[in-house]
Write a structure and sequence with these properties.
Layout: E1 2-7, E2 27-28, E3 31-32, H1 33-43, E4 48-53, H2 57-64, E5 73-78, H3 85-91, H4 93-96, E6 101-105, E7 108-110, H5 115-124, E8 128-134, E9 142-146, E10 152-157, E11 166-174, H6 178-181, H7 195-204, E12 209-213, E13 218-220, H8 224-236, E14 241-242, E15 245-247, E16 250-252, E17 255-257, E18 262-264, E19 267-269, E20 272-274, E21 279-281, E22 284-285, E23 289-291, E24 296-298, E25 301-303, E26 306-307, E27 312-314, E28 319-320, E29 323-324, E30 329-330
Parallel strand pairs: 1-4, 1-6, 4-5, 8-12, 14-17, 15-18, 16-19, 17-20, 18-21, 19-22, 20-23, 21-24, 22-25, 23-26, 24-27, 25-28, 26-29, 27-30
Antiparallel strand pairs: 2-3, 6-11, 7-13, 8-11, 9-10
Length: about 350
């Protein structure tokens, strides 16, 4: 069995971060989101990975390499533009051959991994198997309709009138049957080849499509709010340790200080991770904050935030719920003289509190 991991999207909802960085490499607890997916695939016993990439190929290839660091054998598959999930299957046809495969969206995060689902698929081998979760607003997702026996009978991408609250999670499992229907697909109203249309074709032609409704945590880390929430979740399981230097500081709760990091005259309330070579001085770092390698936090307060490598935050009173990019400098605004500038008409009455 192989895996097709998708890492070619442009990440428009995470701009401006993704103007200069692949969205799959934005870190959660100081580790790129993509790495969690690769580790989940390896834990399921799959070692051959086709990594679908786009314009950010060079950056992703530099981070993942040949996959050996993850115990994987990675082959890079170039997609000229984000033309839909089914298009990724189409361009991977030669690589996948006649093997079963799991398709994993590289910006998705699933607590508990996929090992159990993969084992069940291998045992039963339906034409396809999808993972579902209940959501408050199904209109934002691909939505599945099940019959009384729990078999998938219909799928629709971002429907205006959803037939259920079961949204597709970004993990799909296929036998080679999928290659029979993908070449005949037509672009949807979004201009993409939809994997939901491909699975619907399997159903319509008599193929068996199974589903698993997961109750654990799943997020599509496509926007800042979701990134911060996933960061919070991962940090909840942090095991405290200090491999750096901590002086004249108060450390409370689950805090990780990586090798080469320095914390001085500061108060750190976990869960917090402070990356290698970072320096925190005369500051407060509050819960659910990840400070990456080489960052500087001085004379400032920050919590519930993600700070990417080499950013500098100096003399800032309070930062919350923020995603701060690589090499960013955050400083106080210069003090301005306090004055009122007025243009008042005749017979005006103005009260100024100063």
């Amino acid at each position: 069995m192989k895996a097709l991991v998708l890492a070619g999207g442009s990440g428009t909802r995470l701009r401006p971060i993704t103007h200069t960085s692949a969205k799959q490499l934005v870190p959660v607890a100081n580790k790129p989101v993509l790495f969690y997916g690769l580790e989940a695939v390896r834990a399921a016993g799959i070692t051959e990975i086709g990594l679908v990439v786009g314009d950010t190929q060079a950056e992703i290839e530099a981070a993942v390499g040949d996959g050996s660091a993850f115990g994987l054998d990675v082959t890079y598959l170039r997609q000229d533009a984000p033309r839909g999930l089914a298009h990724a299957v189409l361009i991977a046809r030669d690589y996948l051959g006649d093997d079963d495969f799991v398709m994993y969206l590289g910006d998705n995060f699933i607590v508990g991994g996929i090992s159990e689902v993969v084992a069940g698929f291998r045992a039963r081998r339906p034409a396809a198997q999808i993972m579902l979760t209940r959501v408050a607003d199904p209109r934002q997702f691909g939505v599945a309709e099940l019959d009384a026996a729990g078999r998938v009978v219909g799928l629709e991408e971002k429907p205006r009138a959803p037939k259920s609250d079961l949204a597709l999670v970004g993990v799909y499992l296929f036998t080679p049957e999928i290659h029979r229907v993908v070449p005949g697909l037509k672009p949807s109203w979004r201009g993409e080849l939809e994997i939901t249309d491909a699975i619907q074709e399997l159903i319509d032609s008599g193929g068996r499509v199974d589903s698993t409704v997961i109750t654990g945590y799943w997020k599509d880390t496509g926007n800042v709010a979701d990134m911060l929430e996933v960061n919070r979740l991962v940090l909840e399981s942090l095991v405290p340790r200090s491999d750096g230097r901590v002086t004249d500081s108060e450390i409370i709760g689950r805090v990780v200080v990586e090798r080469g990091a320095v914390v001085e005259r500061s108060r750190i309330v976990g869960p917090v991770v402070i990356g290698p070579g970072a320096r925190v001085s005369d500051s407060y770092v509050g819960p659910f904050t990840s400070i990456a390698a080489g960052c500087v936090v001085s004379g400032s307060e920050i919590e519930y935030s993600i700070v990417l490598p080499r950013a500098s935050i100096c003399g800032v009173r309070r930062i919350e719920a923020s995603l701060i990019g690589h090499d960013v400098e955050v400083t106080p605004a210069p003090a301005a003289p306090r004055a009122h500038r007025l243009v008042l008409g005749d017979h005006s009455k103005v009260q100024i509190s100063s």
